[in-house]
Automatic annotation (TrEMBL):
CDD domains: cupin_MmsR-like_N. SUPFAM superfamilies: Homeodomain-like, Regulatory protein AraC. Pfam families: AraC_binding, HTH_18. It comes from the Bacteria. Signal peptide: none annotated. The lineage of its organism: Bacteria, Pseudomonadati, Pseudomonadota, Gammaproteobacteria, Alteromonadales. This is Transcriptional regulator, AraC family. InterPro entries: AraC-bd (IPR003313), Homeodomain-like_sf (IPR009057), HTH-like (IPR037923), HTH_AraC (IPR018060), RmlC-like_jellyroll (IPR014710), Tscrpt_reg_AraC-type_HTH (IPR020449). Gene3D superfamilies: Homeodomain-like, Jelly Rolls. Residues 190-288 form the HTH araC/xylS-type domain. Keywords: Activator, DNA-binding, Transcription, Transcription regulation. Transmembrane segments: none annotated. It comes from Colwellia psychrerythraea (strain 34H / ATCC BAA-681). GO terms for molecular function: DNA-binding transcription factor activity; sequence-specific DNA binding.
Length: 290
């Protein structure tokens, strides 16, 4: 059960709880039961704000955009600052409170659904807190979801709100992945992409890429795949195929000419690679675009 917040809601604050009857409808709707909003709020400069829970039925996501505060879970207290986001899984025991000296500004969201656990695992905030910075895109989504309080409990609007939450959680997961030191600080990914772009018209092997990253081929390939989800050579080939699409779309050059421009002197080999990556042969792709 939750203890009530000791912070009185100001005129600038927002607090909304989805009616129980509507939650039941969302739980039973094919397009909504994956993820739906159960409560939401926005607390600006929340002096005296504090909450303690021994457990709760839904998942909670809280985003600090200014000021600071403290989160306590499993006997460990963590300072929360502007740009930090923290996730509280369903059933967790926790407490949090605003700093007395510099009280935080918070967006908060309660959600549930059959996909809730999967999304929370996808975000993978191991310490329950992660710094994503003050992200205008994230704030816009929170603001958009908050408009549900004006929807007169319209089911369609709450279905759309649930899909907004899915997009928000997916984006946060991407930010978390991009900011993991083990994944992105090992080498300069932008420099590697630039190197691939410079060789888009020719060949580039794994040895050269690993040397540029100052890593062994094994460690380079492993780290590159952690960041992009693809092997370095597959990534490079995909860049070439995207360039081929551009040339087929924007120029009258023959397939043979396009293949040669991208460093493939065997047109049939190029066509096989193109079909594997794009899903159709180059000639069919061009006709489909006309």
């Amino acid at each position: 059960m939750s203890k009530p917040s000791r912070w009185p809601l100001t005129a600038d604050g927002i607090r909304f709880i989805t009616p129980h009857v509507l939650v039941k409808r969302l739980q039973n709707h094919a397009l909504a039961k994956g993820l739906f909003v159960t409560a939401m709020g926005y607390y600006p400069t929340a002096s005296g704000h504090a909450m303690e829970r021994k457990g709760h039925p839904d998942h909670i996501l809280i985003y600090c955009t200014a000021g600071s505060g403290f989160l306590t879970m499993a006997g460990k207290t963590t300072e929360i600052n502007s740009g930090d986001i923290f996730y509280l899984p369903a059933g967790s025991q926790h407490s949090y409170q605003a700093s007395k000296e510099l009280p935080w500004t918070l967006y908060w969201l309660h959600f549930d659904g059959t996909l809730a656990n999967d999304f929370c695992q996808h975000i993978n905030i191991v310490e329950r807190k992660f710094t994503i910075g003050v992200q205008p895109r994230v704030i816009r989504v929170f603001d958009g979801i908050s408009h549900l309080r004006h929807s007169s409990h319209n089911l369609a609007e709450f279905i759309q709100g649930g899909h907004q939450v899915q997009a928000l959680l997916s984006y946060i997961a991407l930010l978390v992945q991009q900011r993991k030191p083990s994944a992105i600080n090992t080498f300069d990914t932008e420099n590697l992409r630039a190197m691939m772009q410079e060789h888009i018209h020719s060949k580039l092997d794994l040895d050269s890429l690993a040397e540029a990253a100052k890593l062994s081929k094994y460690h380079f390939s492993k780290k590159f795949k952690q960041v992009t989800g693809e092997s370095p050579i597959s990534y490079f080939i995909n860049m070439k195929m995207q360039r081929a699409c551009y040339l087929l779309d924007s120029t009258p050059r023959s397939v043979k000419h396009v293949a040669s421009e991208l460093g493939y002197h065997d047109t049939y080999y190029f066509s096989r690679l193109f079909k594997k990556n794009i899903g159709m042969a180059p000639a069919i792709y061009r006709k489909a675009k006309l």
